[in-house]
Specification:
11-stranded antiparallel sheet, globular
């Protein structure tokens, strides 16, 4: 029996990455800030730790494409955190890229979640995904399995918020005044 030629006709145009208006508006509002950095402050933290207390907090909308945003979150001299928002075709994904100072990945990198509904043009919620739940169980922090990360974008404020039973953490960034752009986050090059 002769082998079938499995090569298909070449795709002239890739399939579109579908999206909905509320996700697009939210994504585009953040992308409009590309290249700018903003100072933030902790406005809610019901379990404060010394890792962020009294340190400058800076978000930098650093790298932007039509479907991915990289937003480093600097805490003082610590440049280990980058939020990655991705259009997936079934919503938006939020991942936390955590690196060591030498650029290598932290064991707790790429946790996050995915939108489950339309959200709003100004607000999106990202409940912990299956990868994150498994990572949290393996890391001995199963209480984080119920994490929900939220991001809010309004003309004057960007907010990053973490909630779960018994835990709330919120940082608000002032979008009315951009600040000098920080150095590249750990593991990234300019």
């Amino acid at each position: 029996m002769a082998a079938q030629n499995s090569s298909a006709e070449p795709i002239v145009q890739p399939a579109p990455l579908v999206s909905i208006a509320s996700h697009d508006s939210f994504f585009d509002s953040i992308r409009a800030l590309c290249g700018k950095a903003f100072a933030g402050k902790i406005t809610v933290d019901n379990q404060p730790s010394s890792s962020m207390a009294d340190k400058p907090l800076v978000m930098h909308v650093r790298r932007c494409t039509d479907d991915v945003l990289h937003i480093p979150f600097h805490v003082g001299e610590n440049a280990s955190r980058t939020w990655i928002i991705t259009k997936t075709g079934s919503g938006l994904s939020l991942k936390h890229d955590h690196r060591h100072e030498d650029g290598s990945y932290s064991e707790s990198t790429m946790y996050g979640g995915h939108t489950l509904d339309a959200g709003w043009p100004q607000v999106q919620s990202f409940p912990a995904d299956a990868y994150s739940k498994a990572l949290f169980a393996k890391s001995g922090i199963p209480q984080s399995s119920s994490n929900i990360w939220q991001m809010f974008i309004y003309p004057e404020t960007f907010t990053y918020r973490l909630i779960r039973e018994g835990r709330e953490f919120r940082v608000d960034f002032d979008l009315t005044q951009s600040i000098p752009v920080p150095a590249a986050p750990w593991g990234y090059a300019d």
